[in-house]
Design brief:
Distance between the termini: 40 Å
Shape: globular
Largest sheet: 7 strands, mixed
Number of helices: 0
Number of strands: 11
Strand content: over 45%
Order of helices and strands: EEEEEEEEEEE
Mean pLDDT: 97
Low-confidence stretches: none
Length: about 120
């Protein structure tokens, strides 16, 4: 029902910034929960942040204060602004859509993008 395309990834130096975009088509995101997950090489996919339909947000502790999730309903797009990037942030970043706000479980999100690579070089 929802197609998601991530963009904005790339190679940055330690301390740099990137803004990731998650553009949706096929259905409005206005009433849905959108989350960002990431998967580092050789590791499990983990939760990063999510935003509710009412724009409440949750962050995992490792990114709190550095990352900001937001949504632009007019563009049907969700963003992840990343600052003070560290090598530990290197991963493929995915956006996902679901119906339950507050869950960090991958299986609770039913629509996923293909991911965008973020590499932080030291």
């Amino acid at each position: 029902q929802v197609q998601l395309v991530e963009s904005g990834g790339g190679l940055v130096q330690v301390g740099g910034s990137l803004r990731l975009s998650c553009a949706a088509s096929g259905r409005t995101l206005n009433y849905l929960v959108v989350a960002w997950f990431r998967r580092a090489a050789g590791k499990e996919r983990v939760y990063v942040a999510s935003v509710s339909a009412s724009s409440s947000s949750i962050y995992t502790n490792s990114v709190k204060g550095r990352f900001t999730i937001s949504r632009d309903n007019a563009k049907n797009t969700v963003y992840l602004q990343m600052t003070s990037l560290q090598p530990e942030d290197t991963a493929v970043y995915y956006c996902a859509v679901g119906y339950k706000f507050g869950t960090e479980v991958s299986a609770d999100y039913h629509y996923w993008g293909q991911g965008t690579q973020v590499t932080v070089s030291s």
